[in-house]
Structure to design on (324 residues):
């Protein structure tokens, strides 16, 4: 199954696409959609939507996975993020993709096996699980890949494989 | 100028379109986009986007106006609302409309002349300003018309007319 992971952000939205049978994962593509900070927020949302639609068109995933909004963060930041997340969910729904939503704890646990793992540990495990030799240059793309792996291992696919 | 006011909500998104020269306003259309509560949230976001695009296609506004998110509300509710608002802003941006964002205080002040006005007073003034004989059946549509009137009177148009 091909899974698109999305790491929403007002300035940088990371994405990562993997092929997975629930146990073994292979990288298809990764990247970051940057929205220009100087532009009006609604224009930036349009840039993010355009970028995500392009990724979906080019990589043709069957499912998408995103993290839940964490309520604990600064409220203003969380509200901004929720706008971006609304746009991402819309894009996923309009493309007809199955959607999985996971807490940061679930993502870390499924990738590192430990819910309080540091960002660096997550990155390292993502690299290792995907058999990547080089470091993943973008933290946002690494986070997107982590949530894609989480979906592949925790969703129906993962349950079937274990 | 033709202005589309949007009152975002996860279950009911009100809309109202007016023609205005900054002083006199005329109702073009009003209504509510209902998203079915039983469906997955991302599907409901897609229903809202579809509804808004249809309104824009049919009424061809030049500008859109929405209320700012009020941070004070219940955080979970505010986050949900922000998702819907993200979708609304995206729809507006992709339709190439000018966008105005106003605080509840600004909307009430511009419609009733008093920032702490009750919902009923806002409704009554909206009816009066638009010369409507009948009550506006939907509170959400009335709120959408209020923010459209706010844009028309407080935006460049309003400054030119006063």
């Amino acid at each position: 199954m091909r899974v698109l992971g999305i790491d929403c952000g007002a300035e940088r939205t990371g994405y990562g696409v993997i092929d997975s049978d629930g146990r073994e994962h292979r990288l298809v593509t990764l990247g970051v959609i940057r929205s220009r900070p100087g532009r009006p927020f609604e224009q930036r949302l349009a840039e993010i939507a355009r970028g995500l639609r392009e990724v979906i068109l080019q990589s043709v995933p069957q499912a998408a996975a995103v993290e839940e909004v964490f309520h604990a963060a600064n409220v203003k930041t969380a509200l901004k993020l929720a706008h971006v997340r609304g746009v991402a969910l819309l894009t996923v729904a309009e493309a007809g993709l199955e959607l999985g939503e996971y807490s940061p704890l679930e993502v870390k646990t499924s990738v590192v096996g430990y819910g309080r793992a540091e960002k660096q540990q997550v990155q390292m495990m993502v690299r290792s699980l995907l058999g990547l030799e080089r470091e993943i240059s973008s933290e946002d793309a690494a986070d997107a890949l982590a949530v894609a792996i989480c979906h592949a291992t925790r969703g129906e696919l993962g349950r079937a494989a274990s």
User: Anything to note?
Assistant: Chain B touches chain A at residues 40-43, 45-46, 49, 69, 71, 75-76, 78-80, 82-87, 89-90, 92-94, 99 (CB under 8 Å). Residues 2-161 of chain B form a domain with the Nucleotidyltransferase; domain 5 fold (CATH 3.30.420.10). Chain B has six helices and five strands. The first strand of chain B starts at residue 2 and ends at 7.
